[in-house]
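Interim report, section 4.2 (structural modelling).
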Amino acid sequence: MMPIKSFFRGPYGVMAIVLVMYFLKVTVKLTVGYYTGSQMITGDGWHNTADIFEALMVVATVMVASRPSDGSYPFGRKNLESLFGLVVGFFLFLMGLSVAGKSVLGITLSLSPLLSWKTIAQQYFQTEAVPEYNWWVALIILVSAILSLVVSRLQIVTGKRSGHESLVADGEETASDGRLEFAVLAGVVGQLLFGWSWLEYPFSLFVAYLMICTAWEIFWKGMDAVLQKSIGAEHEKVMKDLALRLHGVVRISDPLIDGSVGLKTFRVGPTVIVILKLISDEPLETTYVMKRALATKIVAYLREQGFMDAKYYIRTSPTPALPTRVAYSIVREGAVDVIAPNLIDATHVRICDLEHGVCYRWKDVDIGSMSLSERMTLLREKHVSALCEFPSSTYGTATYLVKCVQDGIILIENIQWLQIQEAPSFNPKVLGID
Amino acid sequence: MKRVLTSFSYDPQGCKRVAYATDLAKRLGRKLIIFLPNGVDKRLTLTAQVCGRSEFELLTFELQYIHSYLRQQGIVMEDVVVEFKRDSLGRCVFKTSDMIVSHDFSVSQSLTVLFPRNESSVFARGEGPLMIPFGVGPTALQVLSSCLPLIKIFGQPVLFYHTTWEKKGMSSSQPRDHMCRAAYDVLAQLCAKAHAEGIAYGEYIEKVSFVESGIVRAALEQGVSLLIMGRAKDVGRGSYVDQVLERSPIPVLVMGSKVLS
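Predicted structure of the assembly:
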């Protein structure tokens, strides 16, 4: 059984506190409003009834979003929290606009010297320029405002700690309520002490500004997650640097070379998803260890940056191989092989298959009895792209072939497909083809 | 360490090996000896006949080619005393102070060998600490004593790494609390030695199932530039050094048994 202390530190415990707070507020505000005849307190009581439903929606959202990922939802259901944030942000924005409008109107009515304008405005907007207050009202608003701010702080802290964005969004909305209540309180106290009921409006206007800013932030945070926006180029750059600093990584996958994008980041609810593809020629077991080490570094970095939850999908694949086939002209005398200076003097050709510049297969073909034309045909049939020979003081194959073309012995079409390259050593062992 | 020795070959690994050895020799201020695979043998004689060049001409041509090849690869040897030797590295008479840079795991266990893996310089991935794994034996202490000059020149902190078994009945989640007395003693001696020599140091203790994977993972996580290990004399089969060499993408310096003794 979960200890009580742990329960109240978790999202459900905090939401239980929120619900208790709203039930208390509704009961007290409706009762006091009824007995004092204050329309404002009664209206606020009904507003808090709507907050109860919102709190229940948060609980439902947290319950669904907490379900683990499965085959149908590979990234989990945490985006529901972002959707919730989107809705809260939207309504908070509307509320901010409404409060701002009422505040501007209130200021206008309070300051307008034209009696007729006041009357028209009061008739159209049903706004009392000087409402009636008493100390009961002030006390109720004060307690309600303090409660709102304390509980909102609890919601935000718990939401951030447990990674529930809906809790944070609801906490921000509760905080806005609390700030608004303080603004109203300023007006009530101003009216009771000095007859300055207009004091509420400038404060409310400032609170409306804060509400719109908060709404904007919550809305776009939710929107970014829903649209799977990257978490930011600066974060991606750091993650790429971390990967490139890891021993064994050749590079981050390049769409032009490797056919796929190297790094993708986005958010699902509060969870950052990192999809990274690395090019590494290390064995499978080593890449497994590399992935774990890199994931630890990335998660630590994201935590430092305030992203409390992250999931990573790191893949590795070897450097794409571009197999090439080259041939070496060989002179063999007894058991000794050396690289020949040209194809004409060669006794054999060594046909080598290369990958990443390293020969992984070679085969000798005896060409001692073949004519030059037959030798060229053999190389062509074997799909050899280059012929390597050790430079001599006499002539190389290229010179010889050019002379043959000039003399009309061979057609240029029959030789131009072959590249002639200089072998850096005469020793096959040095060249890794022994 | 008076000399850094390595061998040249025309494959990508050979090039990286020479690059790493050059950087190492430069940092340590040591002489670099590069072994070239061609000696005066039957192949040279046959090539001289076939190509119509003298043997001397052939060898000079090859050396010039190697120089230009290394320059093309961006390997600058101007600040290093370099000597090219036409011999096999295997036939060299080694001194205990020699450090061999090689990709060949079969190099004698008595020699000090640095396996550069796929790196082409000591701090190619940025500067990071050096890691010395330790157990309950004296090997790590011997490794630290032997490597002190290198550690001081590199100027990087040393990380002492240990994996421990879980002590039954011990409720602590701190791996350090699960260490045995002998391992504590080794750690204390390592720290005391590092402190006395004025080297920055740290410790990394953890509980893992596979020691070799733990070493490699921890080294990767900590951004270690070089793993330094020694072969314990009493291990019959499955030396951690060999297992780490099979798995580590990080360069590994294995102190030879001759040096440690």
